[in-house]
Amino acid sequence: MKTYINNKFIRLLPYIGSLFLLSISMNASAAIKLGKIELTSTNQDIIGDGEQAYSYRVKVTDADSGDAMPDLSFDADKVTWSVVDASDNNYDYGKLQEEGKLFFGDQRLITDKHGYLTATLASTVGVNTVLAKLDIVTKDDKQERIANTPVNFTAPEKPTGLLVYNQDVSQYGGTNVTNQPEPIVGLAYKFFSSGNGPVNLPDRTIAELRDAANTPVFDPDSETAIAEVTRGSTAVVYNPEFGKFYLGKMNGGDAPALGLTELKLSVINDKTGAIKAYTHTLNYQRQLTNIMSINSATGAGYVTNDNDCSSGKYGGNPGQSYTLTAVNLSEIIPVSGVSQGITLLEEYPDLRHWTLLSWADSKHAVAPDSVKLMVKDDRPGVPTVGKLVTYDISTKQITDVIPASLPTNKSYAFLCVIHKK
Hints:
This protein is mainly β. Helix content is 10%, strand content 37%.
């Protein structure tokens, strides 16, 4: 009997299989109804790193009975997940999907045991207000659903370099500066790679985030840049028209951008809405300013007292949160026995071409061939310690005594400094 029953059961298997296939075929051909697109992820603002993703599901039910339809399969060319922009910007998110920057993954073509089709959405760029969309084609009709909840992908932050420019004071405010690929002709500049300075902040300088000296991080003709100071000084000013940061500008009583200050530039593609984010962390230890450039033709502004930096004549606005003091020699060049970190001339060997020295004498950012800096001597054990001396940038010579009468064709710069507190 046991053997007979088993043989009979075996002979029935083909018929059972046919009935099972018939059941599936009937389900697939039955009219269906799509429910709304449900966002099952709790976080609605994740990083666009290509790894993190939002999860979606859509319930498929029988159009007549309303019952869920589990284990219902669809052909791949009948199920299409796409994205649309929920904002008024009308960004072309479809282009991002074509480029593989915004993509759906883990797309299930068979409903689960509860009747849901599922998919995930990830991005390799920042993008905002994204709505998932699902189109399904059956033999009877085409159904479309758009999610009600927009999601955002935060742009991954990329540390990048900083190109520091000499500023032409004849155009203070930067109206003469354009975001061109090459550094501005006729103006001094210095590129600092990510995490590599600068330490010294010459007054009246501007800066731009760049991947390299000749590689801007955005194209103003097709992208929009939004800048912010995410950490540190609020004295940094950004000009959105030219994509420049103003680092050495003292605004009223505000302290300059000293210490840890993080600059961030979010670059938005005007067509697709893709967002890239660039950062650079500053750690300026001192800001240097030239309270006067002395020209022997007039002798104007000649000083011998280092207290002139902090006097009311040159000290700035009352109530300011910083104090100007005379620059030490060890802050200009390395001095044995005194540690000041990277000195001004080590960081800017072409200092003569910076407006720090030339602004008072010329509207052009070009200094005279020979410049002497007035600084306080802090060399241990020398007779002039604590007194003003001059340092000739060209000859690298220190003059112990400032001459009573200035030689012809020489310019002297009396430098003052603001230190990080």
